[in-house]
Amino acid sequence: MISTFFGFNFHLKNRCFCCDPHFTTFTMVTYSFSSGQENEINLMKACWNELFALGLAQCSNVMNVGTILSAIINHLQTSLQEEKLSPDRGKLVMEHIWRMQEFCNSMSKLSPDSYEYAYLKAIVLFSPDHPGIDNIPQIEMFQEKAYTELQDYVTRAYPEDSYRLSKLLLRLPALRLISAAVTEELFFAGLIGNVQIDSIIPYILKMESTDYNSQTVSSV
């Protein structure tokens, strides 16, 4: 299922964040708020690549991401030697992989737990500077809420590490340097062919919403 390639399960209800630490490997975002489905879709289109990178970092040890990226680099080098890939294109993809590898390594050194990853993904998702987003004050409110709850959680869980919150937040700007187009080519082309991630996000959201509602009904 395509939905397994995204970052977390996150539900907003009555303006309260509920982070589920068990959804550690690329699960879709499920949330509800009054801005409407179009806003929901635009948010996901704008930041799916950042959520994917965070999910990749979160699962780097389990998935042996370093080995996967090294294999891709070896394949690229072979393609360059055989002139199957232009030098400019090869350089672009190599830089992308190095950035992704560097990000995963930096997150691995910090070793965030599943709750911290969930809050970081919420902060990334609810960025008011995403293009095509309506109801910006509400988006800002959600991001501020995620930040506040992350701050509270880090203070409680890691009282001895007074700089932990800053170190976590300082990792996020690097996500904007990772190309969504190259991520799509490297990780999704073999799965969905020439179909762009943007075009299937509405269907993923619909599937995940249905799954979430089914789980909610069954748990009552």
What would your notes on this structure say?
It comes from Xenotaenia resolanae. InterPro entries: NHR-like_dom_sf, Nucl_hrmn_rcpt_lig-bd, Nuclear_hormone_rcpt_NR2, Nuclear_hrmn_rcpt. This is Nuclear receptor subfamily 2 group C member 1. It holds the Pfam family Hormone_recep. Keywords: DNA-binding, Metal-binding, Nucleus, Receptor, Transcription, Transcription regulation, Zinc, Zinc-finger. This protein has 220 residues and is mainly alpha-helical. The protein has a single domain, classed as Retinoid X Receptor. Helix content is 65%, strand content 4%. It is built from ten helices and two strands; from the N terminus they run E-E-H-H-H-H-H-H-H-H-H-H. It has a two-stranded antiparallel ribbon with strand order 1-2. Strand 1 and strand 2 form a beta hairpin. Helix 1 crosses helix 4, helix 1 runs antiparallel to helix 5 and helix 5 packs antiparallel against helix 6. The longest helix has 24 residues. The chain is globular and about 55 Å long.
